[in-house]
Amino acid sequence: MSNELDIPQQTEFLIKLQDIDIQIYKMKAELDDRPGQIVLLKASLESKKLGVKKAEDNLKALQLEHKGKEVSLGSKESEIKKLEAQLYQIKTNKEYTAMINEIGSRKADNSLLEEEIINLMDTIDQAKKTLESEKEKFSQESKKTEEQTALVEKDISNIKSDIEQLNAKRQQIVPLLDGKLLAEYERILLGRDGQALARIVNGACGGCYMHMPSQVINEIKMKQAIIKCENCQRMLYITDEEDKA
Length: 245
What we know:
Layout lengths: L6 H80 L6 H81 L5 H13 L5 E5 L2 E2 L8 H9 L4 E2 L6 E3 L2 H5 L1
Parallel strand pairs: 1-4
Antiparallel strand pairs: 1-2, 3-4
């Protein structure tokens, strides 16, 4: 960089700009993460629908089974009535006894069927309660998801507002910088994920931690030019405390 510039002053401006850009990059990273959080919240809610769907399917299956058994019972009772009507037409004791046994057997079967229907009705009542419970849980989860989504959306709005304020501060510094120096800073900023400057710490670049030769440290201390790290290409600077160490 040109040594005609007021390097100490330009470096001071760059440090202020860097402080702002670090905050902007951090906030943009948070901003990029927020939509994913909303997607996860909605996906989690969708998965909880499965509990309701399972309870609904179970209830429908039980109700169909109940209807089938009711139809079967009605059919069997009709058959028994026909058999009972036929009793008056039987002429021998043997046939009469056989018919009585047949009717008794079918009534016994119907008694079992009636018991199954009663038990099934109890199961259906329990399935209805389970369905209502699952619906209530889903309703609570929906409300919770809406609240969490609203918080994330509010967070997004706040982050955008903060970034706008930081950009406004940034624009106050940008005109103070040499055009070529600013362009180089912007280039490094993009290539180094938001950190174009690096402070010298214990004789090493604070960006890539590469140890700097004494000659480079001396050139930085002289503040006659912007010195870049040969490894990461970040612009280097040294604080007064480090300079005195």
